[in-house]
Input
Amino acid sequence: MRERVMQKKQSAFIHRFLRDSLQTVASLLILACLPKLAVAVDDEQSVSFESKIAPVLIQRCVECHNHREASGGLDLTTSDGLHQGGDSGKILEAGEPDRSDLLQRVLDHEMPPEKRGQKQPLPDEEIKRLRTWIAEGAYWPKDRTLDLFERTTSIHAGRDWWSLLPVSRPEIPAVKNTEWIINPIDRFILSRLEENGYEPAPRADKRVIIRRVYFDVIGLPPSSKQIESFLADNSPAAYEKMVDQLLASLHFGERWARYWLDLARYADTCGYERDQVKPNVWKYRDWVIESINNDKSYDRFVIEQLAGDELPNRSENNVIATGFLRLGTWNDEPNDQHEYQYERLEDMVHVTSSTFLGMTVKCARCHEHKFDPIEQEDYYRMASTFWAGFIAPGSGKLLGGPDKTQLGYDVFGWTDRSRDPPPLHLLIKGDPKRLGKVIAPAQLSMVTNLKQTISPPPEESTTSQRRLQLAQWIASPKNPLTARVYVNRIWQHHFGYGLVRSPNNFGFTGDQPTHPKLLDWLADELIRGGWKTKRLHKMMLMSQTYRQASVHPRGLEYSERDFNNRLLWRANRRRLDAEALRDSMLAVSGRLNMKAGGPGFRPSVVPAALEGLSRKGSAWKASAPEEQNRRSIYIFSQRSLLVPLMTAFDFPETTLPCGKRDITTVAPQALALLNNDFVHQQSRALAKRVAKQAGTPVANRIKTAWQLSLSRQPSETEFKSSLQHIDSQKTLFTNVKDTNTNTNTNTKSPDLLALASLCHVLLNSNEFIYID
Output
């Protein structure tokens, strides 16, 4: 009995001991896990804040309520700013949304404020998120600072915008129709076509393709002999052989330099009323032509233009390249000299950022960029690199830049005035009279994978070395913009449109790429190939994509889904630009003067074109007739008097960088082709060439006129129409009388005048004016 009692007591003791021990262990385990549970809860709240609250605050509030510009004294970028409130007091009662002014102002549509006179109420879903967040205590992660530009929203780009991410080499996609493929470009294009149920257009015939390649590569039409030779060559290597010959031609640089001159806002004069000549500026044009012909690596091409004077062992060519910075307009008598310095500084920032980076940095002169992740300080970081070379207006001899003694050569270039330039202040609201803090030169903050702080110059340097460091940052293989922007420019001029159709704007308001993987693959190819560009030209020209016809058997059907041909299911039909049109007329007339380089020539213009100028008598003196027959790239570009025939066909203004010319079809173009004296001169010259080559038989003349102008023989219908035209024009010219004397006024052969009229018709034809 006694043993049983003892066993019971022992059992009870053991039970209590085990129970208490288990409770203790459980308590210890719970205590041990509490921090982890707290972290887990905190992590969950952080995720919720980042996914639900931060986007609302960044998109709707932070633009006005930040540490730089705390509207109403309210900074909503930090937890402290949120809880501190603004000028009107606290705006948050954590846990009590109905007592929180933050939510009430949103509900009253007071916030966000009106834009362009229209209210911008928050969507119900975002209001619900704010209410729940406040009700649950308005959790804000420790040390978290919101940044307007940290992420892309529906109204602006962040630093995660596609063009600011590092270039990555994508895999070349697989396709079903492997027989169509020539090179990797075709795989990228065809994969998108197959995804969308398209088939590419058939290959263009050889007569079309030779004309297309000639104009694309050298800007001149192939001769009849060159066409016949290509048509007769049936070897597999015939096309590649032609492409190689054209890329090796000196005329390649003359064609492609013009595209760069558009970007560089090239002109031979300063603009404004006096429109002074920029001495020796034509050397920059020749430098571009030579650089392209020599296949200068693009990174070097960039560096020499921004900082050729700061390179070790600099040469005259290097300094000529810096004319890029000085090509803008120059006013020697501005209303406010101090303010004008900042206008010129803006020109340099704009041409540099839009040309090389495809970003509109100048928009941040007065405030944070409204659409792209460009801080106002970014504008002044870039501007500081150019500040060292500024010369105040007032010296007509300097034309806004250094003289030949400072440059070391008799060229039109740029260099710093000293190695220790004065500080550049941020301008409040962009106003030169409201100086903010000093901004040091540095890289743009929007490019996060390529950090750079510009260092002081070495002791032996005579310049600040700021531009050289900026140029090296731009030309770095790690810069995500430079290679993308440039390969897009090359693609645009071969295919009619870029993969990004806004070539100077890779930001939020620009177009997104139609083929982003192809764009990155080409950018990576450029860098891997040592920044050499002729190999990229050849790759594009050799592709099946490039060789498509411009007419598709299912064109009407495909156009309903892809009217703008963004998927490239056919080639884009293109008209000759102003230079190619003028040069083609000179080429077929037999009068083209192939003299290269040197000062530009002035073509004849009608007196009416001078009427708007203040000094009509000395404003324009035409060059000798033989000089006027040179290629259009050598036309003297006077800002106050651009050649009317060229501007009618969309030659651009020269005050701003032009990445893509307007393409218009307007009545003045037809009138110019019908009435312009230059066109009539080439028609008459072509008629003389035809008559000399064909002899007197009219039939021979007609066939020769068609062959020389359009590189083919006329059809039977076309021949009959041509014959009727010549007969009617001959009768007309034979019977033209002076109404006063009743005598024939023609001093030239009616036969030749009638032939010139036919030539004029052919030079006005769509077949002559359009590439395909």
Residues 1-6, 24-31 have pLDDT under 50 and may be disordered. Strands lie at 425-427, 435-438. The radius of gyration is 35 Å.
